[in-house]
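Write out the 3D structure for:
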Amino acid sequence: MARFVHIEYSTEHGGVNRMARGFAALGSFSITAAALHALAVVGSPITRAAAATRKVLSGWSAARKQRAADRRLWDLALTDARIMADLSRAMGREAADIARYY
């Protein structure tokens, strides 16, 4: 009754054999060398992207600070007529300067 049983299977798993061969092929491969090569390839674009991001964020931050300062000045001008007069004169001069361009 046991004549059809085939027990000629490999005693090692095929995936384990492939992994062992792969690690043997990578034996001369250094993780440190690979990391340095990867950094050399992507380092320059990442540095440029980070610099561009810093530039954009610093511009955004400066604009935000300027808007906050303008808002504080306007709020103060609403309560003090002298400051409002100064702003009005400055705006009038600016409008006259712009009118010369047209």
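DSSP finds three helices and no strands in the chain.
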